[in-house]
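>> Question from a student workshop board

For tomorrow's exercise we were told to take the sequence and the ligand below, predict the bound structure, and bring the output to class. My setup keeps failing. Could a helper post the expected result so I can at least see what it should look like? The ligand is EPU.
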Amino acid sequence: MNLQPDFPLKELNTFGIDVKARFFARFENVEELQQLLTLPEVQSLEKLVLGGGSNLLFTKDFEGVVLQNGIRGIELLHENEDEVYIKSGGGEVWHDFVLYALRHNYGGVENLSLIPGTVGAAPLQNIGAYGVELKDVFHELEAVHLQTGRVHLFDNATCRFGYRESVFKNELKGQFVVTAVVFRLSKKHILNTSYGAITTTLQEMQVQQPSIQDVSAAVCHIRQSKLPDPKQIGNAGSFFKNPEIPLQQFEQLKAQYPHLPSYPVSPGAVKVPAGWLIEQCGWKGKVIGNYGVHKNQALVLVNYGGANGGQVRQLAYDIITSVEEKFGIRLHPEVNII
Ligand code: EPU
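>> Workshop helper replied:
Here is what the output should look like for this input. Compare the format with yours to find the bug.
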């Protein structure tokens, strides 16, 4: 857990951007983290906590301290007839946690299979996919306050979860490290297969009565066919959030673009897929030197190798401008740009 100066971050961010941190340290338990937080360099410099590095874009060297969460361990806390409470260290790889749940036949996270990143980073943006969000299975989390080193507990309400949002991306941004998360998983499964592609994929797999393992297999299949594997092509998943627009604006657009997909969110608002808007502006599959927009999913910006973060950020700005000019909708990045 020593501080290492001038530390290369290329292998620690899934975009594969070649930058350095002024200092780097990895901690494997809460006490190690608390000790690190007493060091003068750590106290005086800006701090960035890294999970899997799968939701950020570095545009320059980081002039502070990067702290990597290496807290492992998954344990059953308690259970009743219907549910189990499972605690996972924040440094566990998210998909390893999903595999643990599937192995023990605990339901609730199967739709979140293969999401890159760590358990500790998952609540920050309330990860979600195929009709399920982390908040649906979340019980509570433990987090260390970076300034005082004290451990705080947050329940579902105090995390203030929203679509790809939580209190840790807003009021408490940069103030806490999530060291452990407790999940409430089910023993009596309620499957969520309403998301179109899951039903069709299960049919293609010729599954009649799907288990949570089947749903996970379907989700893995869909993700692998649409989303680039960060181990092969640098990316951070969806670069933008799907925008929410007023119903009136949606109806006007729908009259002009009858194929515009949408999801209702409230009586007066709908969400539209950013991927569709970006594709309509002609960006899908665009290659600019060694970076661009993925060919199967326009929401994903990619680094084919050697691009710098500033170039990718500029591409994101150009996309935002063109979508705004064509549709009057402003896209917002989901990825943390540093
Ligand atoms: N679409 C296009 N062109 C594209 C991409 C999508 O027309 O290039 C259309 C699709 O045809 C479909 C709609 O947009 O009608 C939705 O597409 P998809 O099912 O691929 O989902 P998404 O809305 O683009 C969101 C999440 C993903 C998540 C999927 C599945 C956000 C920002 N993204 O994408 O999350 O996996 O739904 O639930 O909400 C991530 O956060 O990194 C991520 C990958």
